[in-house]
Amino acid sequence: MGFRISSDYGKTWVQTKLTPDNNLFRESAKNGAPVKMGAPHFVDFGKSMEHSPDGKTYLVAPGPSHPEPKHAWGSGGQIFLARVTPSLENMNYLPKFEFSAGRDEQGQPKWSKKFADIKPLLEWNDHLGTVTATYNATLKKCLMCITHGWPTSKGLDTMILESDQLTGPWKLVSYTKKFGEQAYFVNFPSKFISSDGQTAWLRYSDNLTKDQKVHLPGGRHGMNLQEIKLLSGDITGIPTMIHPPTQ
Asked: Sheet of 131-136: strands edge to edge?
């Protein structure tokens, strides 16, 4: 709906005046209408957004590519991007937000203050879902994690993508079927990326329905952490869980 605000580091909070019927982005899922900025997550640009390219805070969110009831917080066919200069006055005020609106004739990213102009960063019909993004400052790469598979929950697929900038273009690094088997809200906390940028911790929740197999040690319906290595160059002979996506 909007943002609760604290000016004393979380000791007290002021409730947003926005409501489900009068929410920040003026969207509604009533009667199966598509919602573009569904389940948004802040892009992790490090402590106090120290690596933000322009001092703005960014939000990535999944949305449906067409209105069908099966689309939900964990399902969709498109990924959208918004940004705002963070302040107490701006966070709950739609006119202060800008929305990624595709590219101009020279191929440069376009931004618009009109929500109607928003265009998807990524599009893969019924194969996308919950999304997070983190900036790896050492490698100067944006890392995006996408979960697909809701609402069946029989097994959720995890995608990892990389780009030089949030507006893309994005490249698929890995596609792992039934990671977890039900990992979701997968993300890389920037605080735990090593100084050389090549070791990180993958954080996620798992076992959503509590009756599915758990393939990774410690996997549970709570906070899970797995240490990972970011590989480049020749990786011949290294075991992998990656399966190529099929369209």
From this structure: 131-136, 141-148, 157-163, 171-176
Strand partners, 7: none
| DSSP secondary structure code for residue 113 in this structure | S
136 assigned to some structural domain: yes
Name residue 83's amino acid.
Answer: R
- The amino acid at residue 66 is H
Q: Does any domain span residue 140?
A: yes
| Those residues with Cβ within 8 angstroms of residue 126's Cβ, 6 or more apart along the chain or in another chain | 65, 75, 76, 77
Give the global pTM.
Answer: 0.88
CA distance 205 to 187: 10
- Residue by residue, DSSP assigns 1-15 as ----B-SSTTSS-B-
Note whether residue 195 is domain-resident: yes
SS3 at position 60: strand
User: Residue 8 falls within a domain, yes or no?
Assistant: no
At residue 152, the pLDDT reads 63
SS3 102: strand
Q: How many whole angstroms separate alpha carbon 200 and alpha carbon 112? A: 34
- Please count the structural domains in the chain: 1
Q: Which domain holds residue 97?
A: 30-229
> What CA–CA distance (Å, rounded) separates 94 from 38?
16
**pLDDT tens profile 64-85:** 766 554 556 777 889 999 999 9
In which residue are the tokens 């090549």 written?
Answer: 198
Q: 59, 43 in Cβ contact below 8 A?
A: yes
